[in-house]
Design brief:
Length: about 150
């Protein structure tokens, strides 16, 4: 657990510093003179996250060498990777075939990954959800999704 805390603290510290020094200056403009900068609150939050992550690193470096079992099992990591692949496939389908097919792949794929083994239920839920969304946006609201 100690090693996992040190690694996660380091990752959060790098993320916070990257956001503070790169992303915020690029994405958020300076405010007009005499007013509070719109960058202030994001910077306060990210300095807090960075400070707490450094505190996590320091406290775990100073603690005993008591290593317990890994906090995340191999099966949980594999499940996370499977869902990442499902989202990547849905994103690719979104750009290649449109939102309807991406939605179908995302809903049906994640249901199958969660252990649903009744294809009729998966097909009915996916068709019902996508059909209801299509009716709402295209027929009732007369507004395309894209």
């Amino acid at each position: 657990m100690r090693t996992a805390n040190i690694i996660s603290g380091a990752a959060l510290a790098v993320f916070g510093l990257l956001m503070i020094f790169v992303v915020i200056p690029i994405q958020i403009e300076e405010g007009p003179p005499g007013m509070v900068s719109p960058r202030l609150v994001p910077q306060i939050m990210l300095w807090s996250i960075t400070g707490l992550s450094l505190l996590l690193i320091v406290t775990n470096l100073r603690s005993d060498e008591d290593e317990g079992p890994a906090p995340i099992s191999r099966s949980e990591i594999l499940a996370l990777l499977k869902f990442a692949v499902a989202f990547a496939v849905a994103l690719a389908l979104f750009f290649l075939a449109g939102p309807l097919w991406a939605g179908i792949a995302l809903v049906a794929g994640t249901l199958l990954l969660l252990g649903e083994r009744r294809p009729l239920v998966v097909a009915a839920m996916t068709a019902g959800l996508m059909g209801a969304t299509w009716v709402l946006f295209y027929q009732i609201l007369r507004t395309p999704i894209l």
